[in-house]
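Write out this protein's structure.
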Amino acid sequence: ARVRRAAGRAVPEVRHGELQVYPDSGKVLLGGVSVSLSRRELALLGKLINARGAVLSEEQLKDGLYGMDTSVESNALNVHIHHLRRKLYRDVVITERGLGYRLGPPPPP
């Protein structure tokens, strides 16, 4: 993932191959085509992109999406990951068994 910078400030665009994310507006493009993501799907994708390939535990991801005080259904994170894989591409999120999740390789062209 690459964050573009201008004059020391982050420009609101994050790229991961053909995947472009504009966090400020919530806009997501895959190969130039707009993809509609929910607020939580966008937050999850942003958290994974910002981790730059590092594995994030289920708890880290849930805390980032729901906050520490919120009770979350046990499968809620899995549902959001499933939706990202369906809407974007299968390997956008890689499961590291027993450890957590990480951003997958850039999408195929």
